[in-house]
Amino acid sequence: MRVLGVDPGLTRCGFGVVDSGRGRTVTPVAVDVVRTPPEMDLALRLLRISDAAEQWLDLHRPTVVAVERVFSQHNVRTAMATAQAGGVVALAAARRGIDVCFHTPSQVKSAVTGNGAADKKQVTAMVTKILGLSVAPKPADAADALALAICHCWRAPMMARMAQAEEAAAQQRLRYEAKLAEVTKSRLKKAGTR
Considering only CA atoms, which of 34, 26, 27, 28 is closest in space to residue 6? Predict the structure, then answer.
């Protein structure tokens, strides 16, 4: 599986691609940060991020895109900008029929460091170690994008098993309800003939 991890942001939007191997093996493919100047019009900044996302999708051909979910931030303006940047990336992927998964920052930190409250320094250190990089990815947005991709590689099998279990439970519930309706109908029919 090839995963494009995206750490969305208007000023800096991190893109990182990894390939997953057997077990928890992940191999780095590419990483970069797209920057837009704060004085640029919002629509043009989003267009620049969208164009970059489309280039990354066409160049690296990921099987899935992992985007950081805006979970909660004290600064509403920052949260909106992050959500907008993530949205244009998700849209570019959806247009190509590529699945998009969202992971919260604590899910990513927990997957990569084992601590959902880890700081950026710890995340960068673990990403560097996991991917066997000789130099830590900089800025932190680049490391965060790779962390998102790693997180998805490691969480995807569990997410697939959970989806299968939920589907099996839903099918079982439907069979049970159908059988219950059949039994009820039969009992009502017998009661009506007495």
Answer: 34
62-109 pLDDT, tens digit each: 999 999 988 666 678 778 888 999 999 999 999 999 999 999 999 999
How many Cβ atoms from other residues are within 10 Å of residue 82's Cβ? 21
Q: Distance between CA atoms of 169 and 73, rounded to whole angstroms? A: 36
Give Cα 91 to chain centroid, integer Å: 13
Residue 162 binned pLDDT confidence (cut-offs 50, 70, 90): low
Please check whether residue 21 is in contact with residue 3, taking contact to mean a CB–CB distance below 8 angstroms: no
Helices (DSSP H) in the chain: which residue ranges?
A: 42-60, 76-95, 105-113, 120-130, 140-193
* Residue-wise pLDDT tens digits, 5-28: 999 999 999 999 999 988 889 999
Binding residue positions for Mg(2+): 7, 68, 141
Note whether 123 and 109 are within 8 A (CB).
yes
Residues tagged active-site:
7, 68, 141
Domains in the chain, CATH or no CATH each: 2-162 (3.30.420.10)
Indicate the Cα dihedral angle 7, 50, 131, 20, nearest 10°.
110
Cα–Cα distance list, 63 to 18, 24, 60, 73, 81 (Å): 11, 17, 9, 30, 26
